[in-house]
Amino acid sequence: MVKKKLTDNVKDKQATKITEENKEGQEKPTEQKDAVETAGVQAPETGEKQSEAKSDSGQTVTAEKSPEEKMAEMQDRYLRLSAEFDNYRKRTLREKIETTKYASQDLILKILPIMDDFERALKHIDSSEGCEGIREGINLIYSKFSDFLKQEGVREIESLNCEFNVDLHDAVAKVQVDDEGKKGRIVDVVQKGYFLQDKVIRHSKVVVGE
User: Fold this and answer.
1) Residue 66 included in any domain
2) For residue 198, what are the CA distances in angstroms to 98, 146, 156, 164?
3) What pTM was estimated for this model as a whole?
4) For a pLDDT cut of 90, what percent of the chain falls above it?
5) Of 163, 108, 118, whose CA–CA distance to 140 is shortest?
6) Which one is predicted more confidently, 64 or 16?
7) pLDDT at 43 > cutoff 60
8) Is the same domain home to 126 and 143?
9) What is the span of the domain harbouring residue 187?
């Protein structure tokens, strides 16, 4: 009898333990469910706040311009580009004109020493006797060269008895002069200078009185 009572007591304790474990098992899912539901309710609220903050910051940073402002900006950009292109066109046109205008400069500079030689020859022939035929021939060639240079826009720089001008003349020497009117003026021309159109292509080499 005693043994039977002990066995019944053990069975009752095991049954009670199983019942308690089942209750705990039922309570835990309920608690987890409540926690999930609570988290599920709070999460959307947090997301809404973040989206609102982003929306607010986006409106503040990227404010759209009005159509009038966009039109004014495009018009200003167009005017700037148009002015830049017009300046470029004028500059290139001026460069082309200058290139065409002075295209023969190198050739003329090579011809000028020949003109110098002709002028020296004419001076010596004028002081010689019995050279009439040679003088006429040299004068004829010299005249043709002079006409050619004039057609190309070349003209001589006036120097003798003129005021010394650093833009036109190179002083190779200075000499004492008695005449006060010749001081600071050119008393002799060693080598002639020339213009090509309105540009000095060779300065006159002169002697200045002082």
Assistant:
1) no
2) 11, 18, 11, 19
3) 0.53
4) 5
5) 118
6) 64
7) no
8) yes
9) 155-210
